[in-house]
Amino acid sequence: MIALSLAEIAEIVGGQSHDIPDPATLVIGPVVIDSRAVEPGSLFAAFRGENVDGHDYAERAVAEGAAAVLATRPLGVPAIVVDDVQNALRRLARAVVERLGTKVVALTGSAGKTSTKDLIAQVLQRKAPTVWTPGSLNNEIGLPLTALRATQDTEHLVLEMGARGIGHIRYLTGLTPPRIGLVLNVGTAHIGEFGGREQIAQAKGELVESLPKDGVAVLNADDPLVRAMASRTEARVLLFGEADDADVRAENVRLTEHGQPTFTLHTPTGCSDVTMRLYGEHHVSNALAAAAVAHELDMPADEIALALSEAGTLSRWRMEVTERPDGVTVVNDAYNANPESMRAALRALAAMGKGRRTWAVLGQMAELGDEALVEHDAVGRLAVRLNVGKLVAVGGREASWMQLGAYNEGSWGEESVHVSDAQAAVDLLRSELRPGDVVLVKASRSVGLERIAQALLEGFEGEGAVR
Questions:
Q1: Is the pTM of this model over 0.85?
Q2: Does residue 49 carry a pLDDT above 90?
Q3: Fewer CB within a 10 Å sphere, N or C end of the chain?
Q4: What H or E segment, with its residue span, contains residue 393?
């Protein structure tokens, strides 16, 4: 964070100083909510959760080097006391961003947010110092924590914004108002909470509504619900996609023998070829979104293409590909799942597994509401249509729907199995995997199927090649 005195912070957040020997003491480290992450000069924000109260760790945080604690009551250690820690964090983040004048890029969408954010970060980092959302910390706490990591040198701030209801993104854009707003897609993630795709579109479109007149709305030309958001903003619109009228588009899209996308990138300033290190054709859309943002920030097409070609995976368990010494390839995409990302992962598996035996180890897609049966059944059917070698559906009712969909799709029933839990899946795979097989592991985060991928790599640590 930029250096601020405790007195300045107290004034910004409207707090009262307690037990602070010197109000001129500077906060020079990050703002953290976990006492284990404290660095010298940090500010420790004490949140009260369902199971843990950060106030109980205030003394430890100061002992580890925190300059002070942001808290709701005096604690006997240097503290800035406020009525609401979350609101104080919001005020501090906005003040810091306004003081820096950093270019804020915000993005949202039903699928691909984190992968696209990672691409944007890697492309822009080549141009100027960039701070971006770590992992998927895209909510009302994670976003200000990310913004507060910006320093005097930071030119770009790339913020992923998630939403579970109408008004959430409007709130987040109020924390750190963006100049560039990117909407990737409108799918069915969290449809059970929103009630329908139209409601999801309403929520995602709050991002473009927040943009200033001199801002830019970067919209997916291939998604009708996203393209229609052009009418909801006064900002200039930049379209990306494979549509002929897209300002930033891809031509000659194909996959390499390993399932990595290659295409020709076209921007208003030129064109250049891209061959990505990531896996799956769905990353083409993500790459175009990143390219559109980079173009808007004055990067030429050849530099964008080079950056996209060299970009890797920054976030764990998202199409994380590891090849064991025995030739088995494990694709850990278990961080999260929704119908769109599940279909994309299955298509990537089919492309990667040409000439090899493929396994789809899949679990529940959460928060689908009344669409759950139809969507899980459809995933099982798609696995059959893509000629995936074997489906292993892991878990309870939703997994059984997936397996039944595969069984009902054709004479493939003996190649689909339903197992009760992750350990049963591991036992099955360990007994049946053979050299050359490709295994995809994917489910919603709450299912915890990353344990399967990790178990399949046990004993190969340091030996497997990450591709």
A1: yes
A2: no
A3: C
A4: strand 390-394
